[in-house]
Design a protein that fits this description.
Layout: H1 6-13, H2 19-26, H3 30-39, E1 46-48, E2 67-77, H4 84-94, E3 97-101, H5 107-121, E4 141-152, E5 163-168, E6 174-191, E7 196-202, E8 208-215, H6 221-227, H7 230-238, E9 241-250, E10 252-259, H8 261-266, E11 293-302, E12 306-316, E13 326-329, E14 334-340, E15 345-352
Parallel strand pairs: 2-3, 9-13
Antiparallel strand pairs: 1-15, 2-4, 4-12, 5-6, 6-7, 6-9, 7-8, 8-14, 10-11, 11-12, 14-15
Helix pairs in contact: 1-2
Length: 357
């Protein structure tokens, strides 16, 4: 899987940023990025990963009840005009528009405009990407990327089967959650090496699916995140086989809002943020402005009908009938992935430690 994580999504939309910066990022796999975030204490509850290594974003679609939209926009201060060839590149490759705005005089007005645009593109799932004070007179540019994904399960969970049940936060603590249940055929796999199991739930049309990666141990999520490699993940996905399953899945909602500059620095991308070494000459004809802020927010909601997911980034500056079902109870912390099936392109990946949080 060569999908790029959100750090690449930010820079790829910037198109003509120095090739050296892009190579630094594209040399690393998306799962490595997840692990770097964990090791640096960034606690990546959720990240959007929907960019391929060649820099092209996933194309918007709305088939079989699946809605998937990607929108990009660059806000630039009027005193720093963007090169015409770069503007053309953004439009042709990324369908991105450029807004020249008077940030110096009306920084908070611009902030509200950005939030309004993101809210519209994410069906109001993300309404306040930029908080008060995040835009000031020193701000020169905003790179904004908004994603909205909504899909219904191929086989919906019946609401009348949803019950209050225990979810183990760890080996000692539990909480009550709304636990959905279904007895259907699902694809499952297991890994002795990674001490976990996986289950795939398709959305209508079978173009996209969600994969749950469940540690075998109640307290196993942190350890799984630290040791699971992309090869392990690929093996889990390749090993998925259809079985009759009694599935128990909690309703959950995950929201994450992270500053990403420390993450990019951890991946070796430093020059982009340093005044003395930054090279954004492909964007601005004269000045090279360091990027001062990158904010990524994402939200995923799962219920009986399906999934709603949204993300936004702002960069400143066989049959088994008659066989007893296998039980797959997702009753302790787990990982989840939303992917496109034709190429296993990962759109979102996240962790759930408390479904009610």
């Amino acid at each position: 899987m060569k999908a790029e994580a959100i750090v690449s999504a930010v820079l790829s939309v910037m198109g003509n940023v120095s090739g050296q910066h892009m190579k630094r990022i594209q040399a690393r796999e998306q799962w490595l990025r997840w692990r770097v975030l964990k090791k640096r204490g960034a606690s990546p509850t959720l990240i959007y990963c929907g960019y391929r290594q060649d820099g092209w974003p996933c194309q918007a679609s709305s088939q079989n009840g699946v809605v998937f939209r990607v929108a990009n926009r660059l806000y630039s201060a009027r005193q720093y005009p963007v090169r015409e060839d770069y503007a053309t590149l953004l439009e042709e490759l990324y369908r991105a528009s450029i807004e020249s705005v008077d940030i110096t005089r009306n920084p908070d007005t611009i902030r509200k405009e950005v939030n309004k645009w993101v809210s519209e593109k994410t069906n109001s799932k993300i309404q306040k990407l930029l908080g008060p004070g995040s835009v000031d007179e020193k701000t020169k540019l905003f790179l904004v990327n908004a994603i909205y994904f909504k899909a219904n399960w191929d086989t919906s969970f019946k609401p009348e089967y949803t019950r209050s049940a225990d979810f183990y936060l760890d080996s000692e603590n539990t909480l009550k959650v709304q636990m959905m249940s279904s007895e259907e055929e699902y694809k499952v796999s297991d890994s002795e090496e990674s001490n976990c199991r996986a289950l795939e739930m398709p959305y209508k049309g079978d173009e996209y699916s969600m994969v749950i990666v469940l540690p075998n141990e109640v307290d196993g999520l942190t350890s799984l995140e630290e040791r699971l490699t992309e090869y392990d993940l690929r093996s889990l996905l390749d090993g998925l086989k259809t079985q009759k399953v009694q599935l128990y899945l909690p309703k959950f909602k995950v929201r994450s809002n992270k500053g990403m500059i420390d993450v990019l620095r951890a991946l070796g991308v430093n020059a982009l943020f340093d005044t003395d070494s930054v090279d954004l000459s492909g964007i601005f004809p004269e000045d090279s402005l360091p990027v001062t802020k990158i904010i990524h927010e994402a939200v995923v909601e799962v219920d009986e009908n399906g999934t709603v997911a949204a993300a936004a980034t702002a960069a400143e500056g066989g049959s088994s009938s008659g066989i007893m079902p296998v039980e797959f109870a997702i009753n302790h912390p787990f990982l989840f992935i939303i992917k496109r099936n034709q190429d296993n392109l990962i759109l979102f990946m996240g962790s759930v430690r408390n479904p009610n949080a």
